[in-house]
Amino acid sequence: MKYKKTLFWEEKENTIEESKKYSSRTEFYKKSHGAYAVAKNNGWLDEMTWLNKRNVYKDKIDTVYLYNFKDLNAVYVGRTIYPETRDRQHRTRECDSVFKFAKENSVEIPPMEIVENGLTILEGVNKEKYWEKHYRELGFNMINKQPCGSLGLMCKGKWSKKKCFEEGKKYKTRSEFQKNASHAFHKSKEKGWLDEMTWFPTNRTHPNGYWRNKENFMEEAKKYKSKKELERNNLSAYMAGYRYGYFEDCTWFDNKPKLPYGYWKNKDNVIEEAKKYKSKIEFQKGNQSAYGAAIKYGWLDEMTWLNKNKVTTRGSLKNKEYIMSEARKYASKAELMRDNKSVYEAALRYNFINEMDWFDTQKPKRYWDVKENVINESKKYSSRSEFKIKGKGAYYAAHKHKWIDEMTWLNKNKIVDET
Question: What b-and-e string marks burial along 147-165, b requiring 16 or more CB atoms within 10 Å of the CB?
């Protein structure tokens, strides 16, 4: 592809000519972002009558995607109409949930997986909720800060002055308004309505670049005990702290000694931490950063004290009886692939997967929200650990609805051999 010079699109004729290749503003944006941006900034878009404006509710422009940190049993589910742009944001913005999770656990961000495409916005909302629920039921930890299923940026045109005021009245400060309803906040700021929202304290407003000054930031940060508290009360200062690296000097935020950068790249440190735990699951829950490093650098197999009873020989993975027995511990192919990859791959290699008919029986939606179904499932097991391993969906529902204590036939302390 030949890239145009910076000033090429500033020539109106060039931009007009480029725009005629497309039938909608969305297509123009996706396929010629530079020309689109110049047209928008110069107010030429309204003259391009051949470009249909996007109808966010009817056009099939939405995409549902996820980042699956398989080794850490964590997933991020999101929705966007610009996957490439959103992927770049997740990988480069230090305040982004995916970026922060990968950095904290010393792992690489996995490829973006597109799970749904060609959806309307409302279809996208429902599918995003569906995938979030799907992974929660599989026992994954959700990285998302906010619940899935909001309309977000793509429906920002809904914010009239009346609706912005209604939304703004839910919050006590501008920072709180910005954090919880960013699109309404920015619409209000753009239109100059913020000054009319007299219930917000005026003494918290500052000129542009105020938080870029380290002294101003440090003075504000000292009012709070943690990053979370600063984020909750002053989002602008919090974002500046990340952007300019000021948090390194906020030592009062740390309740425990801060580990030096690259600490978990040292094998001895990871081994020492792993010795505090009896199983891989316990290790993963106790210290995700160290566990992620053990996976990444291939040290986990050396930790023989973790899951001592779990023995798998190369010959076992050719034995049909062994593979079928192991696979029956899981409720779905996805769960088998995630938790016992070697058995899953062996089942595929020798074509045993098609004989695992228990995977084909899909539970109807909200099946485990019915107490009777969960109770019946739990009676197949003799301990809570066995129930968790072999009936994960029902087990997590039992905890969610607080039915687990009624299951007196489940021995709390019994350790189950996972083999």
Answer: ebbebbebeeeebeeeebe
Q: And the tokens for 85?
A: 């742009």
Residue 105, Cβ density class (10 Å: 0-12 exposed, 13-18 middle, ≥19 buried): buried
Burial of 46 (0-12, 13-18, 19+ CB in 10 A): exposed
| Residue 223: strand, helix, or coil | coil
Residue 207, SS3 per DSSP: coil
Both tokens of 301, joined, read 């197999």
In tens, the pLDDT along 317-348 reads 778 888 888 888 776 777 777 677 778 888 88
**Tokens at residue 87, please?**
């992927």
Residue given tokens 């995916």 in the structure block: 98
Distance CA 359, CA 347 (A): 13
Average pLDDT for 230-234 = 78
Domain residue ranges of the chain, discontinuous segments joined by +: 8-47, 62-155, 206-258, 263-302, 315-359, 367-406
DSSP state of 116: E
Question: Which has the closest alpha carbon to 140: 332, 360, 300?
Answer: 332
The domain 62-155 is placed in CATH, from the list 3.40.1440, 1.20.120, 3.30.40, 1.10.3470, at 3.40.1440
User: Of the candidates 211, 205, 151, which has an alpha carbon nearest to the alpha carbon of residue 183?
Assistant: 151
Share of the chain above pLDDT 90, in %: 5
Distance CA 285, CA 287 (A): 6
User: How confident is the model at residue 77, as a pLDDT?
Assistant: 93
Q: State the Cα–Cα distance between residues 149 and 170, nearest whole angstrom.
A: 20
Average pLDDT across the chain, whole number: 79
- Residues near 413 by beta carbon (within 8 Å), at least 6 away in sequence: 383
**Which residue, 15, 119, 105, 107, is CA-closest to 65?**
119
